[in-house]
Design a protein that fits this description.
single chain, 78 residues, alpha+beta, Eukaryotic RPB6 RNA polymerase subunit, 4-stranded mixed β-sheet, 2 helices, 4 strands
């Protein structure tokens, strides 16, 4: 039986941003795509999502102080 990493209790919610969402994020933060933290294309979660190089992934984590916190990662080859 194969494990779906996206359903594991320790893996926070991951989702691929649309091109419009990606553009808005970069404008809001006033940064370029290359300034985002990276996540590798061969990461198990990236593979499970079917993300491709250049996609931006939004990670939603539960926080005891903030309720929810959002992190963004740029998918790269290496």
């Amino acid at each position: 039986m194969a494990l779906n990493v996206l359903e594991h209790v320790l893996v926070p919610k991951h989702e691929i941003l649309s091109e419009e969402e990606k553009k808005r994020l970069l404008e809001t933060l006033n940064i370029s795509e290359k300034q985002l933290p990276k996540i590798l294309l061969n990461d198990p979660v990236v593979k499970a999502l079917g993300a491709k190089e250049g996609d931006v992934i939004k990670i939603t984590r539960k926080s005891p102080t903030a309720g929810k916190s959002f992190y963004y990662r740029l998918v790269v080859k290496s």
